[in-house]
Each structure stands twice: as structure tokens, then as C-alpha cells.
Amino acid sequence: MASYTRIMVLLQLFFLSTSSTLIDFYSTNHANSAPLQGWLQRIRNGQISVDGTITTDPNALLRDGSQLVYHRQPWTEPDVPYLLKILYEDEDMIALDKPSGLQVLPGGLFQQRTVLTQLQWWASKQSSSSVHQVPPPVPVHRLGRGTSGILLCAKTKVAKTRLAAYFADGTSKVLNKRDINKGIDLNRKISKVYRALVTGIIQEDEVVIEQPIGMIQYPGVAKGLYVASPAGKPALSKVIVLERDVKGNCTFVQIQSGRPHQIRIHLATIGHPLLGDPLYVSGGQPKCLDSDPVDDNFAQDGGYPRPMKPLPGDCGYRLHAHQLVLLHPATNEVIEITAPIPSTLQTPQERQCKTAHTS
């Protein structure tokens, strides 16, 4: 996929109940995109039009029903892996094998080089060769940019609604210790198992982790960062040790998914963060908790500069969505999907068996 530069145009329609100035509107409603000085810079650069006319006066009054368009400056998106393998597909859904480093939904620097954009491109290509327009599949859950493996997407509105409900319902339910130790997960209509590589040697063969997960304010993460917190929502994980690499001082484990970043946080909580995790350290907290000054700090395009601290989307950790079992959203049939384990997450024994098989 060749490198390219895109200009993002954000179109917004607003019906203002009271009169407001251009700078007041953007600095109040879109403070996550840029600080006050950043929006002043964008307006004076002629990047915002009101009702089709470029407006450089920050104090211009807006009327009810004003049409505002913000023209984002050109930027070059970083190179990413883009190969998406299809693991399963029918009329209602499609399961993809997402590579590590590819973002699922547009955000930040990645607006075009995402899974969603590829799905839209696939659909447009099918529509051009078909009489009927083909709607693009839509991801019904997210995988972190650095996480590889199974990504489930819906091809119909009914499938989207039901699959999203499966994930939401599964996240809200926490099994008790007795059930999770028995491997019983009857309350969930969808269950996903991950392969992970953690730092250090886990001595026990199985570990059950009970650690609530909450949120804190964190620079560069508008909605807050998930961390281990006594005041957070309950979360329970069962870790199964697959193999210990004493020489490499790391452990290969299997673990089920749950709340956002639950795997990364829970493994860090027990002193075994994911190998290469740039964000979470022992205790389930970020490496840095102090805040970056951002009030008077803005980048060349007016937005916030990237924080010096690591962010949740940073890659480097070893995590792979390996298996998925779910009730089909249309037929209620039990579907099992498996994504091949990447070489970086294969145990020494698996690599040895693979070498022996190919030789």
C-alpha cells in the first residue's frame, strides 16, 4: 500500500439554541481535538467555513442551523501492515485475522489505513460489479492496534445489533471463582481466548485474577485510561500457563477477554505484564502518572502534540486473539473460529514441532 497524504474534512451541522461565537463553539465542544490557542490558529489559518464561506474571525457570531466545516491540514499516515485474511464468512458476518499494528477504526493519525476503510473499499468494489449496492461489514468490537487475531464484523443490521449485544453482555458478567475454575462460561453467548507472552516466570499452572478496573485521567486519552482500581468495575480472569521459557525469562499463557485492556491490566497486576508492553507495568498502572502540561501546548496543525508518555494504542506487546466461540446471530448455531498463532507467540515446543513437521 503506497504512502499517501490525505486531507480530512469534517462536516458538522448544528442547531444552536443560543447565539455563539465561532471560537466559543469549537473550544467548548471540541476541546479534545485542540486547546483554545489551537482552535484560534485553525480559524485564522482559514481552515473553517461557515455556511460555505471561509471565516477567519474567531468572534464571528453563529446563527441557528449554521453549517460548519473544519478542513484538516494534510498529513501523512504512518505505514501499517494491511493484509487481512478471512477466517470465516457467511451472509451475516465475517471474521478477519487482523495483524498487529493495524488500527480497527479511524482515529488520531490513522484515518485511512484502518480495518474499517478496507472493509468500505471491499464493499465499494463489490458494488461496482453488482446491480445492488453492497453495504460494508462493520466491526462489532475492537482489538488494540498492537493486538493481532480474530476481529468479528457484521454484514447486516440484525447481526450487528446481536453481536454487539453479545460482547456487551459478556463484558458485564463476571463469573464466580468456582465456575471459572471449572471452565464454565454458560452465561456468555460469545467467548474469546487470547494467547499472550508475559515477562517473568509464572510459577502456578493456573491463576485466577480478581481485580476491579476503573479509569483515570491520562494525557493523550480523552476519555481516560483504564487501570487497576479498587473503586472500578469487577473483573475476573483465568490465566492458564502453556509453557515457561526459563532461558528467556518469559511465560506463554492463555487467557479470556473481558473489559477493555483487562488482559494487559490483570497480567500486570500479578507482576507479569505483557512482554514489550510500553504502557502497563506491575500493579496494573501506567508507567507515568503525572500529567503533561497541555493548556498552552499545541502542534503545528493546532491540535494537541503527541504526549511523550506511552499511549494505549502503542505497539510492542505480545497479544493474539486466538479462538472465538459464539452463537450465530441468525441461526443460533455454535460457531468456532481459530486464528493461526504468529511466530512471536508460538511456544518453543510448538516451533520445534513445526520445524520437525516441515523438515
Provide structural commentary:
With 359 residues, this protein is α+β, with helices and mostly antiparallel strands. It has 2 domains: 5-76, RNA-binding S4 domain (Structural Genomics Hypothetical 15.5 Kd Protein In mrcA-pckA Intergenic Region, Chain A, Roll); 85-358, Pseudouridine synthase, CATH 3.30.2350. It has 7 helices and 22 strands. The protein has helices spanning 22-29, 36-44, 115-128, 157-172, 177-182, 262-269, 348-358, and strands at 5-6, 9-13, 20-21, 48-50, 53-54, 61-62, 67-71, 75-76, 85-89, 93-98, 138-139, 148-154, 190-199, 206-210, 213-218, 221-228, 236-245, 250-256, 280-281, 285-286, 319-327, 334-338. Strands 9, 10, 11, 12, 13, 14, 17, 18, 21 and 22 form a 10-stranded mixed β-sheet that branches. It has a 4-stranded antiparallel β-sheet with strand order 2-7-4-5, with no helix packed on it. Strands 1-8 form a two-stranded antiparallel sheet. Strand 19 (280-281) and strand 20 (285-286) form a beta hairpin. InterPro entries: PsdUridine_synth_cat_dom_sf (IPR020103), PsdUridine_synth_RluA-like_CS (IPR006224), PsdUridine_synth_RsuA/RluA (IPR006145), RluA_PseudoU_synthase (IPR050188).
Layout of helices and strands:
Layout: E1 5-6, E2 9-13, E3 20-21, H1 22-29, H2 36-44, E4 48-50, E5 53-54, E6 61-62, E7 67-71, E8 75-76, E9 85-89, E10 93-98, H3 115-128, E11 138-139, E12 148-154, H4 157-172, H5 177-182, E13 190-199, E14 206-210, E15 213-218, E16 221-228, E17 236-245, E18 250-256, H6 262-269, E19 280-281, E20 285-286, E21 319-327, E22 334-338, H7 348-358
Parallel strand pairs: 12-21
Antiparallel strand pairs: 1-8, 2-7, 3-6, 4-5, 4-7, 9-10, 10-12, 11-12, 13-18, 13-21, 14-17, 15-16, 17-18, 19-20, 21-22
